[in-house]
Design brief:
Strand content: 15-25%
Radius of gyration: 36 Å
Helix content: 40-55%
Order of helices and strands: HEHEHEEHEEHHEHEHEEEHHHHHHEEEEE
Number of helices: 14
Number of strands: 16
Structural class: alpha/beta
Number of domains: 3
Shape: elongated
Distance between the termini: 110 Å
Amino acid sequence: MFILFFCLLSVNDVLVADLDGVISPASSSYMLRVIDVAESEEAACVIFKIDTPGGLDASMREICKAILNSDVPVVVYVAPSGARAASAGVFILYASHVAVMAPGTNVGAAHPVSMGGEKMDSVMIEKVTNDAVAYLKSLAKERGRNEAWAEQAVRESASVDAETALNIGVVDLLADDEIELIERLDGRTVSVRGREHTLKTLGATVREIGMTLRERLLLLLTNPNIAYVLLLLGIYGLFFELQNPGMIFPGVVGGICLILGFYSLHVLPVNYAGLALIILSAILFILEIYVTSQGLLTIGGIVALVFGSLILFESDVPYLRVSWEVIMLVVIIVAGFVIFLLTLGVRAQFRKRATGSEGLVGEIGTARTDIGSDGGTVFVHGEFWNAVSEKKIASGKKVRVVKVENMTLKVEGSEAG
C-alpha cells in the first residue's frame, strides 16, 4: 500500500496548451514558453491542442526545433472535431513525439505560400518547395512517419482525414477527447533526444497553461482584418491631428494604431500599392473638405479605398486576406463620415449669419425713440443701434431689422409689436 501511494505521488503533471489560429511569432513564443515550463517542472508530457490554417515558416521552424530538442515528450493533438493542421501545422504535427488527431479533423495542404509581401518567381517557388519537402521528410524520418505522404502534402497540397492519417502512418493515435488521449498515452514509449522514455499519464494532474496577455495581443495582430482596421485608424487619426493641431486624442490613438499596424504588416503578405491607395484615399477625403469638387474627390477616395483594401494583402490563402464584410463595413463608415462632414459644411454655407452686423437682419427689437427717415434709436439683440425707417414708427413699438448699412439699421414695424 505504501509503495502504491508513493508511486501515485511520483506521477508528474501533464501540461495542456491550446493553439487556435495562425502560426506566428506570438504562437511560437507561447509554445516555447510552455515547453520551458514543462522542462523546469519535469512534467510527464506536454499536450499541444492545435487548430491552425498555417502561418509563418520562421515561427514554424522555431517551434519544430524546440520540440525536437525538448527533454519532455511533446504530444500534438489536432482537436476538437472540425479542427485542422494545415500548412505549418503539418510540420509541427510531424515534429511531435506523439501525433494525435480527433475524429472529424484533417491534416495536409502544406504547400509553401508567400509571406511578408515578397514575390516568388517559378525558380524561387521550386527552391522553397524543395526545401519544405526536405525538411518535412527529415521530420518524418526522425519520428518514423510516412515520408511519401509528407512529400505529397507539400508538392500536391494533399490533405487527409484523421482515420486515413492513422492508417497511412501520418499520426500515431486517434482520441475523441483529452481524457481518452491521456489514457491511451499511458505506458507508451517514445524516443526523447535519443533516450527511450515511457509515458506515465494515468493519475497525473492535468494543468492548462494559457497565453499571457502579451501573447494574446500579438496573436490578435496577425489577423489581417485587425491589421487592416488598425492601419486605417492610424492613417486617419494622424491626418485629423495634422488638420486640427491640438486635438491630441486622434494623434495619440492614430500613432499607437499605426505602430501596431506596421507590426502586423511585417508578418503578413502586404502589397505596398494597396497601402499607397489607402493613404491616397485619406488625402482625397481631407481635400474634399477644403476644395469644391462637386463630390468628385469623395468618389475618388471611395474608389481608392476599395481597391487599396482589396489588394492590400496578396495571397491565395483566405486567412491571409481581408474579408469582404470588413472592407464593405469600413468603406461605408468612412464614406458616411466624410459625406456627413460635407453636409454640415454645405448647410453652414446657407445658414443665416448669427454674429456680426449681418446677423441682425430679421431680428426683432424695440424703438426707444420715434423713428423715421431722419433716424432714431432702437434696442435690438441687447444693444442700442441707430435706425431709420421709411414709415414713421412710434417709440415703444416693436421693429424688425431688414438691412444693415454703415452701422445703421434699416427697420420696419413688426406685427409682434
